[in-house]
């Protein structure tokens, strides 16, 4: 039972790392997108275009020893940038861009990589223990 609990915990960590990478990649890919001016603002603009909202990943331990990953919207959700050539610029030439910090995203991706490596090492160790147990029984 202890080996299966370790595998279950490590697999939840791998899934959390995957969500962390996906969230960070989404933030970086939408760096130049149009953003909602507020976190609780509309999800679309007047023309029906979807507005991007940057999110950050938060991992929490569960009662069973695993990890649950959730995304929280970044507050403030946007920053203003001067870009009068943008189609969605206001009269002053300002646009709302997602509040994405590339330094934070880089650190988050490195943390996700380490999280993935640590959980894969746990899975390998559990696999070796299970194999050793089966060798002893045979």
Outline the structure in words:
With 138 residues, the chain is α+β, with helices and mostly antiparallel strands. Helix content is 46%, strand content 17%. The protein has two helices and four strands; from the N terminus they run H-E-E-E-E-H. It has helices spanning 2-29, 102-137, and strands at residues 55-61, 67-73, 78-82, 94-98. The protein has a two-stranded antiparallel ribbon. Helix 1 runs antiparallel to helix 2. It starts with a helix and ends with a helix. The mean pLDDT is 89.
In short:
This protein is α+β, with helices and mostly antiparallel strands and 138 residues long. The protein is built from 2 helices and 4 strands, in the order αββββα.
Topology at a glance:
Blueprint: H1 2-29, E1 55-61, E2 67-73, E3 78-82, E4 94-98, H2 102-137
Antiparallel strand pairs: 1-2, 3-4
Strand order of the largest sheet: 1-2
Strand content: 15-25%
Oligomerization category of the chains in this entry: single chain
- Taking all residues together, what is the mean pLDDT? 89
- The N- to C-terminal Cα distance equals 19 Å
| H/I helix tally | 2
Show unreliable segments: none
Give me the count of strands.
4
